[in-house]
Amino acid sequence: MTQEELFKNLIAHAKEYGFIFPSSEIYDGLSAVYDYGQMGVELKNNIKKYWWDAMVRLNENIVGIDSAIFMHPKIWEASGHVGAFNDPLIDNKDSKKRYRADVLLEDYIAKLEEKIEKEVAKGRKKFGDSFNEEQFLATNPNVLRNRTKIDNVRERMVKALNDNDLKALRDLIVECEIACPISGTKNWTDVRQFNLMFSTQVGSVSDDAGLIYLRPETAQGIFVNYLNVQKTGRMKIPFGIAQIGKAFRNEIVARQFIFRMREFEQMEMQFFVRPGEEMKWYAMWKEKRLQWHKALGLGDGKYRFHDHEKLAHYANAACDIEFEFPFGFKELEGVHSRTNFDLSNHQKFSGKKLQYFDPETNESYVPYVIETSIGLDRCFLAVLSAAYHEEKLADGEERVVLRIPPVLAPVKVAVLPLVKKDGLPEKAREILGSLKYEFNCQYDEKDSIGKRYRRQDAIGTPYCVTIDHDTLKDNCVTIRDRDTMEQERVSVDRLKDIIEEKVSFKNILKKL
Ligand code: ATP
């Protein structure tokens, strides 16, 4: 099965089992907006808790806030979003479809990369054991030609983006002979800048005076509150402020399921440091964040750093932590050294002093900021796509199992009476009653035990506990492990400890 087919199956599975529904489905959906169902919201809440506890609980010098989505419109002028939060757009005149110019070029580059990979596969087949990949990459003429093309296109694209040279971007698209995937033609408009912020009106005024934006990032809510927090919390530099909340962007290319949405959630932390010390903290947060991801156990090889070639207007260093999604390595989280750009500009635009008095150096200054910014929905997709497995079992049956890290699993334990009679449901409910204060549990007595196991595998429940006739005599149950499918007979008194060991936040947080 190809990655594409697997991804389609995953999307269908996410809907069938109550993880993610298309928004407004009965009205044929709303593009790039999704709703989280009964399982999805549990998984999402667990990811949030993991992030929040790792930031706020484990670090004495990090606190959290929850700022409003609506903010004074001047904030977005100060932050540069009104002037520069743009994507370069291009339309195909025949299909009337709109694309991001840089995405068209990135896709073109990806196709060339694919060609190189195919060439390598061919070489491997031809030369067998004696195949030397490094030498092949350095000498094969087809590979070299494509590599040169990739480097050339990338270099020119980055330059055009940095120079804001829209004509050069269009020329590059034409030169690469990129065709619209819908119409197949190369009939392109000019490239234009398109602002990604959604706007609306407050109050009853209909002119520009009531204009307000839906925040495109949560960070600014932290910046404008940084002194409130610093003073009321008696925070000393270095310190951080964390926030989880919704953000909105009018994305032009909305695709790949919940990877790119118009309404999404961010988990951001701004870390305020002494000017001149930012690179030290930048390096530290890069490593710390990677460690957070790896502790989930989705596979260390699925992550990599990608340094930004085009730095945003506010940054002096920036990188992405990329994850290997079913459609390739893509950005999951950004770590940015934002300098004092935001705070200085808010100082300028608001006319209020935003300086910090450093008691150690007896100096006042505007702090520098390191930001870690992760998309909650992208993290959700990373977990789900790494967890999704279609398996053939020894007995010839098939199962779909979500190997979600147990700490994040929506349901931790399913309590299943073997049959619906003979006092087994009553005993099962008694066990459920003792576990439900510790874990999110599910009770299920419908269908055969095999079918019930499959249903729990499909939502990623780490443990199933089965109550049978012997349970009434010896107070023991069968506990089944999702991944190994092994079953063990244990005393009811041990259940809490066994499950706790596997699913507790404590154990994963201790790894950090
Ligand atoms: P991209 O290059 O993919 O558009 P970005 O560099 O604009 O992302 P940032 O502004 O750095 O993204 O936002 C921080 C994080 O927010 C990203 O790493 C990503 O996880 C998440 N994010 C950004 N845009 C979206 C979106 N449209 N849908 C879902 N998550 C998003």
What would you say this structure looks like, in words?
The chain is an alpha+beta fold and 512 residues long. It folds into three domains: 1-71 and 197-401, BirA Bifunctional Protein, domain 2 (2-Layer Sandwich), CATH 3.30.930; 86-195, Herpes Virus-1 (2-Layer Sandwich), CATH 3.30.40.230; 411-509, Anticodon-binding domain (Rossmann fold). 40% of the residues lie in helices and 24% in strands. It contains 18 helices and 23 strands. The strands form seven sheets. It has a seven-stranded mixed beta sheet. Strands 20-19-21-22-23 form a five-stranded mixed beta sheet, sandwiched between helices. The protein has a three-stranded antiparallel beta sheet with strand order 5-4-6. α7 runs antiparallel to α8 (166-175). The longest helix is centred in the N-terminal third of the chain and has 27 residues, at 101-127. It binds adenosine-5'-triphosphate. Residues 217, 249, 251, 260-261, 264, 266, 331-334, 373-375, 377-378 line the site of adenosine-5'-triphosphate.
